[in-house]
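Ticket #142: bound-state structure for dTDP-4-keto-6-deoxyglucose.
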Amino acid sequence: MEKIKVKNCKIIELPIIKDAHDGLISVANSMDNIPFEIKRTYYIYGLYNPYAIRGMHAHKKLQQVVFCINGSFNLSLDDGAKKQDYYMDKPNIGIYLGIELWHTMKNFSQDCILLIFASEYYNESDYIRNYDQFVKYIETKK
Ligand code: T46
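RESOLUTION: The complex was predicted; output attached.
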């Protein structure tokens, strides 16, 4: 598994439970393997446009963990200093997206489903959707 080098970001590996039945179970627990209290869960699907690009923003306070529970996509991470691409195709492997992390999702397979756990309710004012503003914002926080 490729190591994450950007700030405010890490890999979260959920155990896979195999039992006597067909299929597998992975469990995400608030304040446990998800390192915050989960206030919101959302999922992104219907990604039929091969050129779709989502994200392209950073958050001021919101923490999230993103999973690719079906199919695959590419997650690009940028902390303002380091950049890294991470290929997501395993339902039990999540990426913790901490604050002040520019993230972009693309190259979705048509069957791709993202599942995201978030530490806060939706709040548009938490988003930084302009890259130059993001760079300025993190400079002011130094
Ligand atoms: C993120 C990445 C991983 C809501 O009304 N409530 C919600 O909880 C969410 C997530 C979205 N929306 C609305 C806001 C926009 O009108 O849905 C529309 C699409 O949202 P957005 O353009 O932010 O979608 P993505 O895929 O670029 O980003 C989403 C999350 O918004 C974001 O926090 O980090 O997934």
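RESOLUTION NOTES: The chain has one helix and twelve strands.
TICKET STATUS: resolved
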